[in-house]
Amino acid sequence: MRRIAISVAASTMTLSLAGCGVLNASGSSTDASPTKGNDLTVGLLLPETANTRYGKFDYPIIKNKVAELTRKQGKVEYANAGADAGKQSQQMQQMIADKVDVILLDAVDSHAIAGDVKKAKDAGIPVIAYDRLAEGPIDAYISFDNELVGEVQARTLLDALGSNVDTSDKVVMVNGSLTDPNAKQFKQGALSELNGKVTIAETYDTKDWKPENATAEMTEAINKIGKNNIAAVYSANDGMASGVIKALKAAGVTEMPPITGQDAELEGVQRIVIGEQYMTVYKSYPAEAESAAEMAVAKVQGRDIQFDALTQDRVDSPTNKDIPAQLVTVTALTKDNIKDTVIADGIYKTSEICAPKYKTACATLGLK
User: Fold this and answer.
1) For the segment 243-267, what is each residue's pLDDT rounded down to a tens digit?
2) What is the tens place of the pLDDT at every residue in 321-343?
3) Structural element, H or E, at residue 62
4) Alpha carbon distances (Å) from 365 to 74, 337, 339, 359
5) What are phi and psi of 16, to 5 degrees?
6) Count of CB atoms situated within 10 Å of the CB of 159
C-alpha cells in the first residue's frame, strides 16, 4: 500500500466545500455515478461484535450523518457479520438484491469478499471499503493510516521500556487476524520500529481478533519464555490486550509489563488508568464514520468534486491499483492524555471512565 499524507482534515474539507457551494457540483469523470436525490439507501456491512466500537460508534454515527446529509430522507440498511465471512457474503448479496444505492463494506475476509464486490459492481452499486481494504473493484477506501498505527504502538512501547532498552529485551507480539488486511499493516508498522531494538521472542496472528485466543497464545508464550523474562507485549488491539492480561494474571504476574492496544475501548482506557495496560491507539471514529457517510452520499448523488476532495490519497490492494482513499491520522493514548483525547472529543464522559472501581486511580491522574 502506498501512503500519501492527507493535507486537509476531513471535517474541514466538508465545511469548506459546503461554504463554497460545491456540494451541488458535478465533475466530468466518466465513472461518475448517476445523480440521485436524497431518497437513497446506504448499505452498511460491519464485520464483528467483539470490538464494541462498531455498535457504539460506527453504525450510529454513519446513520445520523446520512440522515443529516439527506434531510432525513436517506436511510442506512445495516448488517453485522459476527466475524463470519460466509454470513457477510450472504448479507452483501441480500443488499445487492435489495438494490441499495451504495455499500460501505468493512470486510471480515478481504479476499473472500472480492466476488461479491464484483457482483455489486455489475449491478451498478458502488462499494466503498470502510476501515479494512477489501479486494475486488471497490470505488474508494477510507480508514486510518494503518502502518502508522503499528508505528505509534511500537514507538510508545519502546518509550515505556526506557533508555536502557536493548536487543536482549524479549517482546511478545499478539497480532490481529490474518484475514484482516489491516492486521498485516499494523504488524509491518510495528516491526519497522521494533526490529533491531528488541527481540521478538514469540509472535502470533490471532484468529478473529478474539480475546480468548489471545489468552491461549499468551499462556503459551509465558510457558516458553517464562513470566519474568517478558519485557513487553505488543497487542494489536484492546480486546486482545484484555486476553493477554488475563493470561499474565493467571500466571501470577502482579505488575504488568508495558502492553499496547488499539481502539480506545472504555475497558482499555480504564485499564490504562489503573496501570494494567500501558497505551492504546485512539482513532477518531466520528471523523472516519462521518467522512465515510459523506463519501457514500456524494458517490450516489454524482457529486464528483466533493467525492474527489474526500479521497485525495491513493492505495493499492492485491487486485486493484490507485484506489481513491482517505487515510485518517491516529494518536497514542496513555494515562497522560486521556483528558485531551477521548474526553475532549466526547467519546467518553469522565464519569464513565471513573466508575467507582477506578475513582482513586482517576483522582491520582487528575480525572474528576
Assistant:
1) 999 999 999 999 999 999 999 999 9
2) 999 999 988 999 999 999 999 99
3) helix 59-69
4) 44, 10, 9, 10
5) -70, -35
6) 15
Catalogue the E-assigned strands of the chain: 41-46, 75-80, 102-105, 127-130, 140-144, 170-175, 199-205, 232-235, 280-282, 313-315, 323-328, 331-333
Residue 258 and residue 161: Cα distance in Å, rounded?
7
Average pLDDT estimate for 29-41: 68
Residue with cell 486521556: 338
CB 275 within 8 A of CB 260: no
Asked if residue 149 lies in contact with residue 281, where contact means CB atoms within 8 angstroms, the answer is yes
Give CA separation, 43 vs 25, 27, 105, 297, 341, in Å: 24, 24, 8, 11, 30
Cell numbers linked to 172: 511478545
Per-residue CA distances from 341 to 57, 153, 348, 349 (Å): 16, 16, 10, 11
The average confidence (pLDDT) of the chain is 91
How far is the C-alpha of 14 from the C-alpha of 346, rounded, in Å?
Answer: 20
**Bridge partners for 142 per DSSP:** 130, 326
Q: CA–CA distance from 289 to each of 18, 39, 66 (Å)? A: 18, 20, 10
CA angle, 275 then 281 then 286, to 5°:
125
pLDDT digits (tens, 9 = 90+) for 144-193: 999 999 999 999 999 999 998 999 999 999 999 998 989 999 999 999 99
Q: Which residue has the cell 452520499?
A: 297
Please give the helix or strand (H or E) that residue 184 lies within, else none: helix 181-194
Structure-block grid coordinates of residue 79 = 448488517
pLDDT in tens, 216-231: 999 999 999 999 999 9
| SS3 of residue 82 by DSSP | coil
